[in-house]
Amino acid sequence: MSQDLSAVQKKPVGRLAPSPTGFLHLGHARSFLLAWWDARSRGGRVVLRIEDLDRERCKPQFVDAARADIEWLGLDWDGEVLVQSRDLAPYERACEDLIERDLAYPCVCTRAEIAALSAPHASDGEQRYSGACRGKWRTPAEARAATGREPGLRLAAPDGPVRIVDRLRGELEFDVQREVGDFLIRRRDGAMAYQLAVVVDDARQGVDTVVRGEDLAPSAARQALLHARLNLPRPSYAHVGLVVDEHGERLAKRRGDLALAELRAAGVDPRAVAGWAARSVGVSCGERPRAQELLPHFGLGPAAAAPAKLSAADLEALRRST
Ligand SMILES: [Zn+2]
Question: What is the whole-number distance in angstroms between the Cα of residue 90 and the centre of ligand 1?
């Protein structure tokens, strides 16, 4: 019982983790507001992390825009901003550790070779890997010497279901081996994979509470395997429903008209965005609350698991809120 009490008393640490591969849109704004409200309303901390390991797609102007968007929404963060690309050593160390303990192995397969071998895709579009290189070489150096190719690195995923507990959805099960197979933790071009970096960073930033879109729920299972292999604590998850238009279509990143940078430039009132995001999870506090003003009213309940509709009328109301 005393253990339960200490768990209740511990203040959560949440995170905002934009990936600067494009401008953030209203879907991101909602996820960030919910994550911030969830941690802050319980007296917790919020850290900011720039997930910019994909050097080809990440651009400095998107980093600047993301920070400006977050500030515009009225959200703040604690401590230093962690920019993933600035120091790759923590990720390299995790990879070395996994290789040394035979939990990860080098893979020299090209994308085309993998595509030729496997048809099915996981629900989030990740292609399944057949395990062709499993057991062939222990270290990247061995694989390189044997093939003349630069290898990537894959985590050996066990057979059978991986369970995660979601605060909104209860127990979720994913068969990682069947859905994606042994997955990449370092790409062949040397770039660290999202899954590995997130696990390493959540641990070193002390993040124990993750609120994000449900499209990332399958990732939680892959991350759970990494948490277990690296002996790192697993955060609690709440995967919120995605924002859809009135036809039920997901908001895509390309939709320029929904970019926060564009709404900001048009003089839209960020409090109208906060009001919409709060109402989308059944929390009400006037039409145009400041993010801060929502805190006493906020609670993340099962309603947040449903898709959040952004109708043309909602969008029009936001645009008129100048
Ligand atoms: Zn391979």
Answer: 24
How sure is the predictor about 167, in pLDDT bands with cuts at 50, 70 and 90? very high
Q: Give the Å distance between the CA of 154 and the centre of ligand 1.
A: 8
* CATH architecture of the region 12-85+204-319: 3-Layer(aba) Sandwich (3.40)
Query: What CATH number has the domain spanning 89-195?
Result: 3.90.800.10
Q: What tens digit of pLDDT does each residue of 103-148 get? A: 999 999 998 888 887 665 666 667 889 999 999 999 999 999 999 9
133 C-alpha to center of ligand 1: Å? 4
Q: How much distance in Å is there from the Cα of 247 to the middle of ligand 1? A: 40
Q: For residue 125, how far is its CA from the centre of ligand 1 (angstroms)?
A: 19
Segments making up each domain of the chain, as ranges: 12-85+204-319, 89-195
DSSP string, 173-229: EE-HHHHT-SEEEE-TTSPBPHHHHHHHHHHHTT--EEEEEGGGHHHHHHHHHHHHH
